[in-house]
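ok so I'm stuck.
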Amino acid sequence: MSANSKTTSRTRLERREQEILRAATELFASTGFHTTSTRRIAEAAGVSEGTVFHYFGSKHDLMLAILDRFYTERLSRNAEAILNEVMGTRERLRALALNHVQELAADRALMMRLIQVYIGVDLLYVHGDDEAPEQDSPIRALNRTYVGYFDRILREGIARGEIRGDIELPPCRDLFFGGLEYGMRTYLYRHRGTADAAIGDYVEELVEPVWRYLQPADAAAGAAERPDALLRRLERVTRRLEQLAEG
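replied:
not stuck anymore, here's the structure
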């Protein structure tokens, strides 16, 4: 077989794999994981059911492949680029937040729905052991890698004196990503046709109070907020986001 023939064959196989992933993504998101059969996925992809199993051993493997690509090729790859290209701690946090919401918004509620579906079929996500990552489910491992970029931003910010040293990473991580995902849930489900209209403003309003809370007291000139005050500010951001979505 010539080199050109091998390249053409490989391209055809990759295209077929992409079609299967596309069909599975749409069906899992629209009709649910359990109610979607591999036969239906095969029909939507224009291949036989046997071909689906040739590429993916099970429906569960298909779901994992979809999420793996989303985390690895979009979230984590972009986060790595941010840490390599952006130097300031605040600018890094804003860039990470903007990438997170833009990637979710790019597929509307699709990826959020798929992650929720996956959690429902992968109980190890809920019961995984934070002290024994080797026992994690695949999706927990993907998520652990991704949120590790946030941890790295904070650790490097502490080392540079831009973030106070008495913070605990897990609560800060939950506050950061939890605020993003709660807000985006409202944004994605209520916005129609103007998904990018207020994303930048929303990210800026979210990052600012988080940043003020993270700063050393002297750097913030006495303006650093207590956690309860920070939560109140985040609630105001959410209410404003809802108003923008309804308007």
